[in-house]
C-alpha cells in the first residue's frame, strides 16, 4: 500500500475522532447548561410540591399540634368520615359553588371568545380589559366586591333602589345563599377572562376553509357554530373545563376575604375549613390540629383526583374529535 495513502487514512481517522470528541463535549456542555437553568424550578418543585405531599402523608396519621405528636393510626380518618359533619357540609358548599359558577363562567367565556374572534373594532382592547381581573390580587377583588355589595351605601343596593327593583337594602352577607351568590359573582369576574383567552387560542387554530366551504353550502352562523366550531374546539373545552373545575374546588382566598365562612360557617368551603385547622384562623379550633388538617387535606386530594378521573372518563371522546 502507498505510504501517502496510509498517512491520509490515519489523518482522516484522527480528524473524525476529534470531531466526535468535540461534538460529545459540546453536547455535555449543553446538557449541563440545561440542567443548571432548570435547577431553580426543579428545586422549587421539590421543596414546595413534593416535600409537602410527603409531609402531609406522614402527619395525617398523628395527633399533632406543632409541639407534640402522637401516632393514632386511622383515628383522624375515622373522625372525618364518622363525626365531622362540618367537613362534609363545607365539601358540599364547594361543589355547589364550583358547578354553580361554572354554568355561567364557561358559556360566557366561550361566547366572548367567539365574538372577539371576529372582525370587531377594538377587539385587542376588549381582550386586555376582559383578561385584567385575572392578574388583580384576590384580596383586592374580595374588597372590591365586599364594598360593591355592602348593605349600606353599596353600589349594587343603590342601583337596585334607584331602579325600584327592591324596596329596602339587601343584606347580601346576612344569609348563606346571597353570600354564595356574591362569592360566585366575584369568582366569575376573576376567571372568565383567562378561559376566554384559552378558547380564543383554540378558535384561531380552526381552519378558515371549513367556514368558507360551509358558507358556500348554505350553512347558517348557528349551524357553523354547532357543526364546526364546537367539534373542533372540543379538546380545548375538555382541558379548560378540567382546569376550571379543579380551580373552583380549590377556592380559598376569595372566600376568606369576602365572608370568612360566615354567617355561622354556612359559606365555609373545604379548603378554608382545612386552612383554619392548620393555622387557627378566624373562628377555627382553639388549638392547632395539624395532624387532623393533614388528614383532611389527604382525603380532599383523593376526592378531587377521583372527580378529575371521572371527568376525563366521561369526556374521553372529546379529545378524539380532531
Radius of gyration: 28 Å
CATH architecture classification of the largest domain: Orthogonal Bundle
Number of domains: 2
**Helix count, DSSP H or I runs of 4 or more residues:** 12
Q: How many strands, which pairing sense, and closed or not: the largest β-sheet?
A: 2 strands, antiparallel
- Secondary structure tally: strands: 2
Q: Reading side by side through the largest sheet, how are the strands ordered?
A: 1-2
Q: Which CATH class of the largest domain applies here?
A: Mainly Alpha
**Which runs of at least 5 residues are low in confidence (pLDDT < 50)?**
none
Distance between the termini: 64 Å
Overall 3D shape: globular
Helix content: over 70%
Mean pLDDT: 87
H-E order: HEEHHHHHHHHHHH
Descriptors:
MetI-like fold; 322 residues; 2 domains; single chain; mainly alpha; two-stranded antiparallel ribbon
Describe the overall structure:
The structure is a single chain. The chain is an all-alpha fold and 322 residues long. It has 2 domains: 3-58; 75-320, MetI-like (MetI-like fold), CATH 1.10.3720. Helices cover 72% and strands 2% of the residues. It contains 12 helices and 2 strands. It has helices at 3-59, 75-82, 85-116, 123-131, 138-148, 155-162, 176-203, 208-216, 221-249, 253-258, 270-279, 290-314, and strands at residues 62-64, 69-71. Strands 1-2 form a two-stranded antiparallel ribbon. β1 (62-64) and β2 (69-71) form a beta hairpin. α3 (85-116) packs antiparallel against α9, α3 packs across α11 (270-279) and α9 (221-249) packs antiparallel against α12. It starts with a helix and ends in an 8-residue tail after the last helix.
